[in-house]
Specification:
The chain has 600 residues and is α/β, with parallel strands linked by helices. Helix content is 40%, strand content 14%. The strands form 6 sheets. It has a 7-stranded parallel β-sheet with strand order 11-19-18-17-16-15-12. A 6-stranded mixed β-sheet has the order 3-2-4-6-5-10. The two termini are 44 Å apart. 48% of the residues are buried.
């Protein structure tokens, strides 16, 4: 059984009643359309024209000429790319400035189609939207795509102006770093390797935890110990912070921050944020009388931090009015301050890893209160969202029901940026190809139906195996729901939620999936990779499942020879170029672990 994938016609406002008035984009393998590039087009707009030309050639077999707006007589049938003179004259009501960086325009006027957007990436995104939602092209991964074969197609009547709610969108998976794939996925995050030709990316200077990056103790502590935390009556830089009431320190940090910006003035944001205390219970907050007094007045350390960051942001704004300044609501600063409010150019960044919908599940209540308190006082939030299992990338991680609802929750609470941190060291995690694609589409257009998107990917990427794989995804999600346990982002085992009965069913579903694609080498290889987390789920708790099957007289569908299965599993992971089985933990360590486990 295959899913029937329908183009998202309503999202692009195709006016069916006017389709008879439209000319043929291609008919009988021929087209009289030309691609026109706006005069003075920037690099991404030129790339947009080339991308449109190459994809239409692949889909329709017709190479449309690319002309410059002022270089030749205008043909009758044309697709105009970028913020052209004709676009402004035809639609004077369009507020192009409101499109900002990434907003798009898809409008037609008789035999002319306009694909344009905000600078620098908007026109490129308009072309990709047209290719995906109208022509039917799909880019599943950085190396795997689908281009339809079209012999005849009318140019539809289009009327869409859209600006994404999120200024910053990053699907943080290993394959998603590829710059061309990131651009086609409409991701623009800090780690996307997007060249200027494809619009570049949104840069956050320093990324995070920048106190000691801006004021390294090796450089400053001996001469200025008073710039660093006073803990138990002594100034220290060991696992500590800064003395946030020291004006001389703030002046030096601001000077260094401005030097960072001058080197990369096109960056969108700079991080002025506390050191990470995750590795120790020792927080290192300054206890000097001045800092302690403000902390008491504000009801916690976040007010002390925010007063400092506001002052730095005020100085930065004088020289760089469009630069945003980011700081963290994290660990000891997660609670909103009692008095101080963020300046208009300050962004508050949260870190979270909730695997159940934030807005509806009681287990998330404390975090929801914190983010609500901040969104009440902060015009801009940014969410660093953990969407994988960092302790074991290769185990099933059925957090599907939380993905779309949590993205919408973040946006409803003033989020302008999302960093969806997934398996950035692995190619063999739990449907990582689907996850990278799905999250990118949801960040671009959060109103999209997640189930429809999942089905669209499964059908396009796995072909006839889509139906049993969809049942497998639902089975794992239901297994978690039945147990009503919280799926954490650092779990070494599935024991809190996954039982033998579910694994036996899962094994049968993957058998069906493999059988459905056994005569297609490409699809069979994709299904084999998708099965690796299921295999590891068996190996991870092998003795326990064997014992349960024996004691309860139940079937055991797992590997009969675990030693051979573990060797095959590792070889498959190596074949698929899996670098890590857990965050910062190479696959070689798992190979040693399994060898020891099954040699006993």
């Amino acid at each position: 059984m295959r899913f029937i994938v329908l183009a998202s016609i309503t999202t692009i406002c195709v006016v069916q009643s006017l389709s008879a008035m439209a000319s043929d984009l291609v008919k009988n393998g021929k087209s009289d359309y030309s691609i026109i590039v706006a005069s003075g087009a920037i690099l991404p707009e030129q790339t947009a024209a080339k991308e449109l030309q190459s994809h239409l050639k692949a889909a329709m077999g017709v190479l449309l000429p690319i002309l410059e707006e002022d270089a030749a007589a205008s043909p009758e049938n044309k697709i105009i790319i970028g913020q052209s003179k004709r676009l402004a004259a035809t639609f004077p009501e369009l507020e192009l400035a409101a499109l900002k960086h990434d907003g798009i325009v898809m409008k037609s006027d008789g035999s002319t189609l306009f694909l344009a957007g905000g600078c620098p990436r908007g026109s490129l995104y308009a072309v990709y939207t047209f290719l995906e939602e109208v022509v039917g092209c799909h880019w599943w991964t950085s190396t795997e795509s689908y281009i339809p074969q079209i012999k005849q197609m009318e140019m539809p009547i289009l009327d869409k102006v859209y600006t994404p709610a999120l200024l910053y969108r990053e699907s943080f998976y290993l394959d998603a770093f590829d710059g061309v794939f990131a651009a086609r996925s409409k991701c623009n995050g800090n780690f996307c390797e997007i060249t200027p030709e494809y619009g570049g990316h949104y840069s956050i200077l320093g990324w995070c935890h920048t106190f000691y990056k801006l004021l390294p103790p090796d450089t400053y502590f001996n001469e200025h110990p008073e710039w660093y935390s006073e803990v138990n009556g002594k100034r220290t830089s060991e696992h500590a912070q800064l003395c946030l009431t020291n004006e001389a320190m703030r002046a030096e940090l601001t000077k260094n921050a401005l030097e960072w910006i001058r080197k990369e003035p096109t960056s969108g944001m700079i991080s002025i944020s506390q050191n990470d205390a995750a590795a120790t219970d020792y927080l290192g907050i300054c206890q000097c009388p001045a800092c302690a007094a403000i902390e008491k007045e504000e009801g916690g350390p976040s007010g002390l931090l925010l007063r400092f960051v506001n002052a730095v942001a005020e100085d930065i704004q004088k020289e760089y009015p469009d630069m945003l300044v980011e700081t963290l609501a994290y660990q000891f600063t997660i609670g909103a301050p009692r008095i101080t409010r963020p300046r208009e150019n300050v962004v508050i960044r949260f870190c979270s890893g909730f695997t159940k919908p934030l807005a509806t599940d009681p287990v998330n209540a404390d975090f929801c209160r914190e983010i609500q308190a901040w969104s009440d006082i902060a015009p801009r939030l940014y969410n660093w969202d953990y969407v994988t299992n960092f302790a074991r990338y290769l185990l099933p991680h059925p957090n599907w029901k939380a993905l779309a609802p949590n993205i919408r929750f973040f946006i409803a609470h003033n989020s302008i940026g999302l960093f969806e941190q997934g398996d950035y060291g692995s190619t063999c995690g739990d449907f990582v190809q689907l996850r990278a694609w799905l999250l990118a589409h949801l960040m671009w257009e959060p109103s999209r139906d997640q189930d429809a998107l999942i089905n669209e990917f499964l059908d396009g990427y796995y072909g006839p195996a889509a139906w049993p794989l969809r049942q497998y995804i639902d089975l794992m999600s239901d297994a978690l729901s039945k147990d009503n346990d919280q799926l954490l982002y650092a779990m070494h085992t599935t024991s809190p939620w996954l039982v033998l009965d579910d694994l036996n069913v899962a094994e049968a579903l993957f058998d069906q999936a493999e059988q459905a694609v056994q005569h297609d080498e490409t699809l069979a290889r994709r299904v084999r990779r998708a099965r690796l987390p299921l295999t590891y789920a068996w190996l991870n708790r092998y003795s326990e499942f064997v014992k349960t099957a024996h004691q309860q007289n139940k079937p055991f569908a797992g590997p009969q020879d675990p030693s051979a299965a573990s060797r095959d599993f590792i070889e498959a992971c190596q074949e698929f170029k899996c670098k890590e089985f857990a965050e910062a933990n190479p696959l070689e360590n798992l190979a040693k672990e399994l060898k020891t486990q099954f040699n006993k």
